[in-house]
Amino acid sequence: MMTSVDADLIRVLADPLRLQIVTLLARETLCTTHLVEETGARQTNLSNHLRVLREAGVVETEPCGRFTYYRLRPDVIASLAGQFAELAETARTAADNKRACP
Fold first, then answer.
1. How far apart are CA 54 and CA 50, in angstroms?
2. Strand (E) or helix (H) holding 7
3. How far does the chain reach from its first CA to its final CA, in angstroms?
4. CA nearest 25: which of 39, 14, 15?
5. Among 26, 22, 36, 27, which Cα is nearest to 67's?
6. Which of 21, 50, 61, 92 has the most CB atoms less than 10 A away?
Protein backbone atom coordinates (compact mmCIF):
# COMPACT_ATOMS: atom_id res chain seq x y z
CA MET A 1 0.00 0.00 0.00
CA MET A 2 1.25 3.50 -0.77
CA THR A 3 2.17 5.63 2.24
CA SER A 4 1.43 9.30 2.83
CA VAL A 5 5.03 10.12 1.90
CA ASP A 6 4.41 8.53 -1.49
CA ALA A 7 1.18 10.50 -1.87
CA ASP A 8 3.11 13.70 -1.13
CA LEU A 9 5.63 12.82 -3.84
CA ILE A 10 2.81 12.16 -6.30
CA ARG A 11 1.34 15.59 -5.50
CA VAL A 12 4.77 17.18 -6.05
CA LEU A 13 5.13 15.51 -9.45
CA ALA A 14 1.50 16.18 -10.46
CA ASP A 15 2.19 19.85 -11.17
CA PRO A 16 2.65 20.28 -14.96
CA LEU A 17 5.67 22.60 -14.68
CA ARG A 18 7.39 20.39 -12.11
CA LEU A 19 6.77 17.35 -14.30
CA GLN A 20 8.26 19.25 -17.25
CA ILE A 21 11.31 20.14 -15.13
CA VAL A 22 11.75 16.49 -14.08
CA THR A 23 11.46 15.37 -17.70
CA LEU A 24 14.12 17.88 -18.79
CA LEU A 25 16.42 16.89 -15.92
CA ALA A 26 16.06 13.23 -16.85
CA ARG A 27 17.91 14.07 -20.07
CA GLU A 28 20.65 16.31 -18.66
CA THR A 29 21.83 18.35 -15.68
CA LEU A 30 20.69 21.96 -16.17
CA CYS A 31 21.03 25.30 -14.43
CA THR A 32 18.15 27.65 -13.70
CA THR A 33 18.95 29.73 -16.80
CA HIS A 34 18.61 26.66 -19.04
CA LEU A 35 15.34 25.70 -17.36
CA VAL A 36 13.93 29.20 -17.86
CA GLU A 37 14.81 28.98 -21.57
CA GLU A 38 13.34 25.48 -21.94
CA THR A 39 10.11 26.03 -20.00
CA GLY A 40 9.39 29.70 -20.63
CA ALA A 41 8.58 30.09 -16.93
CA ARG A 42 9.65 33.15 -14.96
CA GLN A 43 12.82 32.67 -12.94
CA THR A 44 11.09 33.29 -9.58
CA ASN A 45 8.31 30.81 -10.40
CA LEU A 46 10.84 28.25 -11.58
CA SER A 47 12.95 28.71 -8.45
CA ASN A 48 9.90 28.04 -6.26
CA HIS A 49 9.15 24.82 -8.15
CA LEU A 50 12.81 23.75 -7.93
CA ARG A 51 12.72 24.36 -4.16
CA VAL A 52 9.66 22.08 -3.86
CA LEU A 53 11.41 19.38 -5.93
CA ARG A 54 14.58 19.73 -3.86
CA GLU A 55 12.70 19.54 -0.54
CA ALA A 56 10.88 16.42 -1.79
CA GLY A 57 14.24 14.84 -2.60
CA VAL A 58 13.53 14.58 -6.34
CA VAL A 59 16.43 16.79 -7.43
CA GLU A 60 19.81 17.68 -6.01
CA THR A 61 21.91 20.77 -6.57
CA GLU A 62 25.47 21.33 -7.66
CA PRO A 63 26.94 24.82 -7.25
CA CYS A 64 29.11 25.92 -10.17
CA GLY A 65 30.45 29.45 -9.82
CA ARG A 66 27.50 31.82 -9.72
CA PHE A 67 25.15 29.18 -11.15
CA THR A 68 23.35 26.28 -9.52
CA TYR A 69 22.89 23.12 -11.53
CA TYR A 70 20.03 20.72 -10.89
CA ARG A 71 20.23 16.96 -11.31
CA LEU A 72 17.39 14.45 -11.13
CA ARG A 73 17.69 11.73 -8.48
CA PRO A 74 16.67 8.67 -10.52
CA ASP A 75 16.49 6.45 -7.43
CA VAL A 76 13.50 8.45 -6.16
CA ILE A 77 11.66 8.09 -9.47
CA ALA A 78 12.57 4.39 -9.68
CA SER A 79 11.28 3.78 -6.16
CA LEU A 80 7.95 5.41 -6.99
CA ALA A 81 7.73 3.47 -10.25
CA GLY A 82 8.41 0.26 -8.32
CA GLN A 83 5.58 1.01 -5.92
CA PHE A 84 3.21 1.55 -8.86
CA ALA A 85 4.42 -1.73 -10.39
CA GLU A 86 3.66 -3.53 -7.11
CA LEU A 87 0.22 -1.93 -7.03
CA ALA A 88 -0.45 -3.10 -10.60
CA GLU A 89 0.68 -6.64 -9.75
CA THR A 90 -1.60 -6.69 -6.71
CA ALA A 91 -4.51 -5.63 -8.94
CA ARG A 92 -3.66 -8.38 -11.47
CA THR A 93 -3.61 -11.11 -8.83
CA ALA A 94 -6.79 -9.81 -7.16
CA ALA A 95 -8.76 -9.33 -10.39
CA ASP A 96 -11.15 -12.19 -9.51
CA ASN A 97 -11.59 -11.17 -5.88
CA LYS A 98 -15.04 -9.71 -5.28
CA ARG A 99 -16.47 -8.86 -1.89
CA ALA A 100 -20.10 -9.78 -1.50
CA CYS A 101 -22.56 -6.98 -0.84
CA PRO A 102 -24.37 -7.17 2.52
1. 6
2. helix 4-14
3. 26
4. 39
5. 36
6. 21
